[in-house]
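Ticket closed. Logging final result for L-2-amino-thiazoline-4-carboxylic acid hydrolase.
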Amino acid sequence: MKKDFDLTKVTTPILLELLKDEIPSPECFLKECKLSLPNFENTIDKKFPIDLIKFISMPLWVYINLKNKLGPEKAFEIMRIALLTGGVAKQSILFDSINKPRTFENFIEQELQINKTGTTKWNSLEIICRDKSKFEIKITKCLYHELTTSLQIPEATKLICQVDNAVFNSYLPEEIVFHRDGLNRRIADGCNECHFVWKYKNKIERK
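Final structure:
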């Protein structure tokens, strides 16, 4: 599993393209964000794991600076596109489908492994149901949301969890269907926990 995949290899070219008509010098803007990143990281509460901070601080810092330059709505949409694209690439690699066949069982195993060692290892997970046709979990603690809230940008959590729908519903399209069992079922929406439901349809059910 290639856990060391650099997200910025995807997000940086996208940001440069999206920003070329929005600010005078996108390259200088991103360079300034990178140079000032250590100072920003020093302002983050030390209760958060250092590896979480290193993983997510740059996108959050870029988002904060874009909000100051372009306003909240445009900044959010730009980061939505960049992080969705980069996040799908990162998560897809973590599912290791090149080496492991795309099956419902392999999907479940990889999802649980990612929660232990991958991009969601900082969250607390509980398994609600696991059988041949359904896998359901809930996240009872999300450090991403706690971090963004501490930085007074709680809406940024939604930039991160938007990747879920894209990755989960593309792993085995039409065979595995992902949903959250209703609207506003995330911690980022004000719920006490995040709900994740995957349903597997066999060949007979898909006809």
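Residues 72-94 form the longest helix (23 residues). No further action required.
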